[in-house]
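Lesson 9: reading folded outputs for more than one chain in a single document. The general rule is that every protein is listed as its sequence immediately followed by its structure tokens, and records are never interleaved. Here is the first one.
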Amino acid sequence: MTQDTATERSAAVSCTRLAYSFGETTAVDGLDLSVGEGEVFGLLGPNGAGKTTAIRCITTLLPVPAGMVHVFGHDTAKEQMSVRRMLGYVPQQLSADSGLTGRENVALFARVFDVPRRERAARVAQALRAVDLTDAADRLANTYSGGMVRRLELAQALVSAPRLLILDEPTIGLDPIARTSVWEHINAVREATGMTVLVTTHYMDEADQYCDRVGLMHRGRIRALGTPVQLREGLGERRRADGAPATDPLPTLEDVFRDMAGSELEDQSGGFRDVRSTRRTANRVG
């Protein structure tokens, strides 16, 4: 067995030279990425860096035209159903039906993910309890706040008891209290089950606080990889080597982000800080 093969089998997610293009536009450009089993991994980067495209390849929503992607050792190109059975996925777009109750929304996902009929009611109740929505379970989703909607979407993803939970911008548009609540519930489930979490976010404070490791993605590739502290300390060391005073405060993860992506952050439509405009769905039912 080669070292690369061993890595693919031991990692929760392994991408090797993954590439994906939309016409002449390259979204993912030879991506190499490994997410360890049981960790919370943050995939960060400016708009257009290729994060969502990579995630759609990992979740089998897009084919893998070049390179390889494995999820717990299963090839996403050849074993799509096996991969899907191990995943929970919360996309950027609204996935809750405002015309159904919270319980009905989660029950629908239980059927879609082929949870055995005899287990569905208990699994639905368990997922709702995990995100603290038991009391609101029989209310229509259109009466929920934005934070409650995101927790409902999390319950939908958890009902199949996934080994890997993938969250694409899970807290965009939410206020700080709602953001904290969503992360508290994610961490509670992770601690109880050992679930692996792969998350994209534009909130650097979230990545710094909640992620075990982060990968900074730019132009379709990982440009920096490590724990938040390692990346912050690394930038601090480079700045001191360039003459910055030793008394300067440790850079933030946002500083690392800006150092990696440079001035292109300011050139993007809407800019780095204007990500709320890309997702207003939480407020549609809030």
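And here is the second record, again sequence then tokens.
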Amino acid sequence: MDGWSFHNPVRIRFGTGSREALQSRLAERRVLIVSTSRGRRQFEEDALLSAAIASAASVSWVDDVIQNPGLLQTQRAIEGLSGIHIDVVLAFGGGSAMDVAKALAAALAHPDMERDLGSLIAHPAQYLTSAVPVIALPTTAGTGSEVTPFATIWDHQARKKLSLASAHLFPEMAIVDPSLTFDLPGESTFSTGLDALNQAFEAVWNRNSSPITRGFAGHAIGLALEGLPRLHRSLGDQEAREMLAQASLLAGLSISHTRTAICHAMSYPLTAHFGLAHGWACAVTMGAVAREVFEKRREVFEAIAPLAGFAAGIDLLDGLETVLETLSVREVAGKSIGNVDAVMALIPQMVIPGRSDNFILPVDEARLAQIVSASL
């Protein structure tokens, strides 16, 4: 039996209405809230959340977060907060809000001369020695970022994804209240839900997996494979929303240990060059990768199937393929990508240390080309 380890220090509150726990965490603290403009409106219109910040010593906002936040924009936000003292950063929103909140938490913990985000990303061991505490309230289900020590910032000029990673970036607390996702539009629901499903599978076909991560991931897969089709039938299905919120949380706990793998590595150039939303970019190769794992390492599917509520590995594979077909993943991705030859030209960029080499099968450009061909 192989040895393994697991560490995740995030205090978690899950359940509809759990956001009421926020008030006790903010009392007498100087709070910075990070959100989109839509997120700020959602926050201020919510009675429980408005009451929570009433007890804070002070409240500042960064409320202009955009999808796939960029290095230059995030650096400007850091500089705009110069001279403001912050005790806790409250991340309210989806993955992009979480990413920016963590980047700000890292930068604001250091003297002005050490707040260069590029340096923090490139040399975390040297510069990222502490961070302002983060409390995460996700409004999507989702990225699982509320329980991971990772943040993604994009260098849009270089069309490159940058990773900020440090144990200091684990949030102090994650409050996962599914009711915050009840009004999420369909496009965002399915994009973020597919990301959660893919993260769970990525934690399974991963060299860093362990009994704990497989347990979390298997349960997340079962919840997502049931919840996504239900929401496709009715976006108002609140029980399905709760399923996806929990799936996202469990998948996040899994990848906080394993990190992601081949689908995520392949997704980044698709987002950078074609503007394909992250969840769809991950999902478009998921079916082909799953079939490859099933053919070469069938025991992986057989071990996960009962955890996800399936009788056998082939049933789990069929369940995944049915969901991808139901959500028209290939068609949605194809509308953004168009030319398959253009994707083939990006294959060298899909070999990413710390991502593609987490995959349980050897990764080379020939295998990536085969996956692209089968996916698009």
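What the second record shows: The longest strand covers residues 88-93.
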